[in-house]
Design brief:
This protein is of the alpha+beta class. The chain has one domain. The strands form 3 sheets. Strands 2, 3, 4, 8, 11, 12, 13 and 14 form an 8-stranded antiparallel β-sheet that branches. The chain has a 5-stranded antiparallel β-sheet with strand order 1-5-6-16-9, with no helix packed on it. A 3-stranded antiparallel β-sheet has the order 7-15-10, with no helix packed on it. Strand 3 and strand 4 form a beta hairpin.
């Protein structure tokens, strides 16, 4: 009985320690800052811990007949301000609205994204949502404008997407939030697109430059549940102690 009693006390202590654990002791809290200063650093938002890996962007067009590219001025990390929220963050663009147009045998792109890893030591990510400004896609060929946040771990994907797509003058609006493909996961690689624009032929796409907010939906252990489990283990320990005294 002694081994069982000691094991019960150890498990009880572990549950109580988890219930009383700080929100996130592994990284300092994220603060509002220029996005460029976050590259290569880590910080926490609630129970979520973020490590910022890099920033990517592009502004270019391709002539499909000659396979030649023309490059414009792409955004950089320093063009954005990072602001932590309750369960995610906001990227505020410090520049002007963005727009692109295609042309005869011309495809054009303009986009920016933040890459990072996110970990929740105490729960699981079950969805992600995104909210931002006005998007437009017009023309008689093909174009799209969107902002999106997604995080994946293996075959599992949490995703939030807002998109306007034009196909030969037919406009499709898509708004998919807190999507989960596969099973919930506690850590993954994330991509936050404050905007992505594409246009082909006689078409154009634009984004009004408003702030884009990325929010995670995740589960966390409830302190009440942990305490109830702890009380149950405490009762079990008491029973074991009495049994030991009776033997």
């Amino acid at each position: 009985m002694r081994r069982f009693h000691v094991a019960g006390v150890s498990v009880l202590a572990a549950f109580l320690a988890l219930a009383a654990a700080p929100t996130n002791a592994d990284a300092s809290a994220c603060t509002t800052t220029n996005l460029a200063s976050l590259m290569g650093t880590s910080c926490s938002i609630g129970s979520l811990q973020f490590s910022f890996a890099g920033f990517g962007s592009g502004n270019y067009s391709e002539n499909l007949q000659t396979s030649t590219y023309t490059y414009g001025t792409a955004t950089i990390a320093g063009d954005f301000t990072f602001t932590p929220g309750t369960d995610g963050f906001t990227l505020t663009f410090n520049g002007s609205p963005q727009s692109i147009s295609g042309g005869t045998n011309i495809e054009a792109w303009d986009f920016a994204y933040l890459e990072y890893t996110v970990t929740d030591p105490y729960g699981n990510i079950v969805g992600e949502s995104v909210a931002g400004g006005a998007l437009s896609a017009t023309g008689t060929n093909s174009s799209e404008a969107l902002y999106e946040g997604y995080t994946y771990n293996g075959s599992s994907l949490a995703d939030g997407l807002t998109e306007v797509q034009d196909s030969s003058g037919a406009i499709t609006n898509t708004n998919l939030q807190n999507q989960l493909s596969g099973t919930a996961f506690s850590s993954g690689t994330g991509y936050a697109y404050p905007f992505y624009l594409y246009a082909e032929g006689n078409a154009s796409a634009s984004w009004d430059g408003s702030a884009t907010t990325f929010t995670y939906l995740y589960t966390v252990p409830e302190p009440g549940t942990l305490l109830l489990l702890g009380m149950g283990l405490l009762g079990l320990v008491g029973v074991c102690r009495r049994n030991r005294q009776w033997t």
